[in-house]
């Protein structure tokens, strides 16, 4: 496994932000990297509002399932992106070496317009990340 190609997106529930980031990364990286997302306390399902706003732009998250973050996921990733966890208890991955913190607002309980803004912010952040990764190669 080529760790230099592994990218990990992390949030608490893995039901919104990290799922959107993973989906955008897959779309724009075009198989040049391996990408996964996970949560420190995964939800049972993806946030339905997130599924809806991603479907609006042609990305289907209906079959995605939140998954639990493991230490091996972190160890085997070139880059770990923390989507906005706030403390060590809820998101210990924030406190490991080589983590980028995007501080993205949680879409949970937000209006559809707010979730669209979060989606668009994540898309821009993913495109910037891809640019930086490609410049590193």
TrEMBL record:
Pfam family name, one: LMWPc
MF term (GO), any: protein tyrosine phosphatase activity
Database matches in Gene3D superfamilies: 3.40.50.2300
Domain of life of the organism encoding this protein: Archaea
Biological process, per Gene Ontology: response to arsenic-containing substance
Keyword set includes RNA-binding: no
EC annotation from Swiss-Prot or TrEMBL: 3.1.3.48
Record's keyword annotation contains Disulfide bond: no
InterPro entries membership: Ptyr_pPase, Ptyr_pPase_sf
Keywords: Arsenical resistance, Hydrolase
SUPFAM superfamilies assigned to the protein according to its UniProt record, in alphabetical order: Phosphotyrosine protein phosphatases I (SSF52788)
Domain Phosphotyrosine protein phosphatase I positions: 5-132
PANTHER family according to UniProt: ARSENATE REDUCTASE (PTHR43428)
Protein name (record): Protein ArsC
């Amino acid at each position: 496994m080529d760790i230099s190609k592994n990218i990990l997106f992390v949030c608490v529930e893995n039901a919104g932000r990290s799922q959107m980031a993973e989906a955008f990364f897959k779309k724009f990286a075009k198989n040049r990297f391996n990408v996964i997302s996970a949560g420190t306390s995964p939800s049972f399902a993806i946030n339905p509002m997130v599924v809806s706003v991603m479907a609006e732009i042609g990305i289907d998250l209906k079959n995605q399932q939140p998954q639990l973050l493991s230490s091996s996921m972190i160890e085997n990733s070139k880059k770990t992106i923390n989507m906005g966890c706030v403390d060590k208890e809820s998101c210990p991955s924030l406190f490991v070496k080589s983590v980028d913190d995007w501080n993205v607002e949680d879409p949970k309980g937000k209006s559809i317009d707010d979730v669209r803004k979060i989606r668009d912010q994540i898309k821009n952040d993913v495109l910037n990340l891809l640019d930086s990764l490609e410049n590193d190669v």
